[in-house]
Amino acid sequence: MTPAGDLLAAEIRHNGPIPFRRFMEVALYHLEHGYYRRPRDPFGKAGDFFTAEQVQPVFGALMAARVRQLWRSMGEPQGFTVVELGAGRGEMSAAFAEWRYVPIDLDFGELPEGFEGVVFSNEFFDALPVEAAVFAGGEFRERRVALAGDAFVWSEGDKVSREVEHYLRRWFPPPEEGRCYEANLSALAWIERAGRSLHNGYLLTIDYGFTRRESIRFPAGTLMGYRRHTARENVMEDPGARDITAHVNFSALEEYGAECRLVTERFETLAQTILAAGEADQFGSVLAAGGPAEELRRRMQLKTLLFGMGETFRVLLQRKRP
Ligand SMILES: C[S@@+](CC[C@H](N)C(=O)[O-])C[C@H]1O[C@@H](n2cnc3c(N)ncnc32)[C@H](O)[C@@H]1O
User: Fold this and answer.
1) Per-residue pLDDT reduced to its tens digit, 116-132
2) How many C-beta atoms lie closer than 10 Å to residue 213's C-beta?
3) Ligand 1 centroid to residue 299 C-alpha, Å
4) How far apart are the CA of 122 and the centre of ligand 1, in A?
5) Residues 56-81 pLDDT 10s
6) Entry pTM
7) Pairing of strands 198-207, 115-122
């Protein structure tokens, strides 16, 4: 068993089955053994996955072009700040260097107070620990994690908390017997925090996800595990040695955002955002620089972003006015 697995198994032996949220917290973020805390780099070719943000410099240049449009639409304010949630390896620092850039991750950065600018994130919300639930016997019940020998297995727990029930009733269609769900309460907390600290500007969120209506496509929920670029369905195998994600519920982000005065301006695919960002000069500035070999490399990157990731990732743009 992995070291994080040993810790989780000991906790289950001691306390009984644990909430899935606790399992995900330890598996991803335990200080020593969590997936995002270990010395091994999970990103890139030798790692388990790569994100759009690593397709550099093209992704950076395109997102900077998008942010420049937003900056202009606000009248090019002085002190314009780009905050990045879940900045990871800081891949965006060169791209956002023309503004004050505040990267935030587990060990660094803090949301500034009352700033003007953009809160940017790529695959941040899908990495937050979620509550897992199943609709059984006419009510939402917790999906907990138990032990069967050395393996982690699902076990049905009590009725979910009122907060989780409220989330599931509000941001999913009426429940159906046997369906599984996830509630991302941390995502709501981050939306609220971002709305509070942003005085004037935008929240630009890129992630995998679905709307309330689209959620019917996922009767078994959306939890996924990644190892060596392959999606595994058993998310409870090898905790700490693989990534775990849950698709983002964009209806929750939009509607809770509106309550925090973050009003949706656009909700579109990553491909649409990229096409709009590159429109002004037909991608000239993104592809230029560094001779034919570099141009070919950049064209390949653009292709990966547009066709490989462009339709699976969504971009939500929310506006906060003073
Ligand atoms: C899937 S990675 C994405 C990294 C980067 N944005 C990219 O696209 O390559 C998710 C990131 O969110 C960070 N993260 C998770 N929970 C966080 C929290 N509570 N506060 C700050 N960062 C967090 C993780 O450490 C990780 O770097």
Assistant:
1) 999 999 999 999 999 99
2) 10
3) 28
4) 8
5) 899 999 999 999 999 999 999 999 99
6) 0.95
7) parallel
C-alpha distances out from residue 262 to 121, 253, 259, Å: 15, 9, 7
CB contact at 8 A, 85 and 128: no
Of all atoms in ligand 1, which is nearest to the CA of residue 49? 1
For each of the domains in the chain, give its residue range(s) and CATH number, in order of start. Answer: 3-320 (3.40.50.12710)
Q: Which of 276, 270, 273 is nearest to 208 (CA)?
A: 270
* Residue owning the nearest CA to atom 3 of ligand 1: 123
pLDDT in tens, 78-104: 999 999 999 998 899 999 999 999 999
The alpha carbon of 102 and the centre of ligand 1 are apart by a number of angstroms equal to 14
Pocket of ligand 1 (CB under 6 A): 36, 51, 53-54, 86-88, 91, 104-106, 122-124, 127-128
Nearest CA to ligand 1 atom 12: 86
Q: Please report the pLDDT score of residue 229 as a whole number.
A: 54
Q: What is the pLDDT of residue 161?
A: 98
Q: How far is the CA of 185 from the centre of ligand 1 (A)?
A: 16
**Is-contact 302 286, C-beta < 8 A?**
yes
